[in-house]
Specification:
Elements (H helix, E strand, L loop, with lengths): L2 H28 L7 E5 L1 H4 L3 H4 L9 E3 L7 H6 L1 H4 L7 E5 L2 H4 L8 H18 L4 E5 L15 H7 L5 H17 L3 E3 L25 H11 L4
Helix pairs in contact: 7-9
């Protein structure tokens, strides 16, 4: 094993523990949550959404529980649906999951596996929460063109090898079909996030993928009609 392999193994182990700790934290938090509210579920793009801070400036405020977990892929959400969704018995559910499947660490993105897992997630939600209004969210665009601190060209090429705007658009089209099959709404709240070339605006992102609060403010504004 090379030193690089060892470092990657340590990082992977740390991330795995962090994910497990968040699931445990959510399980405890859920005991104090009100049932029948709004839940956000997904990966880091959901976890990092500062929705409760941002909505303080809005006339209408909604009780929202954020149960996103950074680094999650569809299979991981599938294995923690109890803690991330079902225990809260939401009246409304917003899901954004799958971008980490697309940007697979090994570079082996399998669209069929993503869709199969997503289908099972939606199937289980339909069984457990038949009255819940489910909103399947379109994936946000990325910016692989701008320069970001701490990311050299090699890191950028690795980061965006499979996580491209073209791949995200293709995945959106398939996920939209999947949502329709389950009778769920597919919503695209990306208006205002993109520059003229279709990239995530540089001023909204720290690394081309994850957004600052100003980017999420755009998302929240677009979400208002569904909350």
């Amino acid at each position: 094993m090379t030193q690089e392999d060892l470092i990657n193994e340590i990082l992977d182990d740390n991330m795995k523990r962090e994910k497990e700790d968040k699931v445990k934290k959510y399980k405890i938090l859920n005991k104090y949550a009100k049932k029948g509210q709004t839940v956000l579920s997904g990966s880091s793009l959901m976890e990092y959404f500062p929705v409760n801070e941002l909505q303080q400036t809005l006339a209408k405020q909604t009780v929202i529980y954020n149960r996103g977990i950074a680094g999650y892929v569809t299979s991981e959400l599938l294995s923690s649906l109890e803690e991330c969704i079902f225990e809260l018995e939401p009246a409304k559910l917003f899901i954004n999951i799958g971008t980490n499947d697309i940007s697979s660490a090994d570079g082996e993105y399998d669209p069929a596996r993503l869709l199969a897992n997503y289908n099972e997630i939606l199937t289980q939600i339909g069984v457990r929460l038949p009255e819940c209004k489910v909103y399947v969210m379109a994936y946000y665009p990325v910016n692989a063109q701008a320069d970001f601190a701490g990311m050299d060209q090699a890191a950028k090429e690795s980061y965006f090898r499979t996580r491209t705007n073209a791949a995200l658009l293709e995945a959106n089209a398939e996920v939209e079909k999947l949502a329709a099959q389950h009778g769920y709404a597919f919503i695209n709240v990306n208006e205002g996030l993109m520059d003229p070339e279709g990239n995530l605006k540089e001023e909204y992102t720290m690394d081309g993928v994850h957004m600052y609060a100003n980017g999420y403010a755009v998302v929240l504004n677009n979400l208002q009609e569904y909350l």
